[in-house]
Model the fold of this input.
Amino acid sequence: MTYPHSTSAPLAEGALRETDVGGLGAALRGAARISRWLAWLGGALLLLCAILVSLDVVFRAVLKVTVFESFELSTYAFAIATALGMSYALASRAHIRIEVVYQTFPVHWRGWLDVFAYAALTLSAGVLLFWCGAMVLGNYDSGARSNSSLSVPLAVPQAVWLLGLAWFAALALLYALYGLRNCLRGRADLAHRRLGVAALEEEIDANVSRGESQP
Done:
């Protein structure tokens, strides 16, 4: 079993540059860059919430009042940041994968197993997106608001959250199509190199590249 790990941009994008040019390969490189920026945006939201929570603690201690309603805002920010970060975890191959039996197969079959894994992920993400979209539309139609002093229209933060889920589902589909195309063309090794579980050597090279790129 592999566990979520911290990978750098070379692992998310560089694996495609050697042999894959144009078409889906270029789309995946662009999607990886967008996912990285979305992850930064999610992190910025969490940092902002940490600042608001700290200020609320100070105001409650000194003035006995709550100014920013940071608890409610932080719940929205956490959900949005999670949805925005899921796509970067996918691009970085940081999601948990069970690989005990997987590693015993030759590279050709690993490529097909990777395609199956991403197809299953696409299906799961699509079902999640459908029901979450129905919930957001229901809240929008009913004009539902939060039960707090802010009275936030729930459809507003939920819509941003839904966009993150939609991007994740689209990215999973793009990866599945990329792997399927290469497997059908007899390039299962390329599909495995991009979709498979990151090898230890790749993680080390990625971390070294990240360290060299820092001033």
In short: Residues 1-18 have pLDDT under 50 and may be disordered. The radius of gyration is 20 Å. Residues 22-209 form one domain.
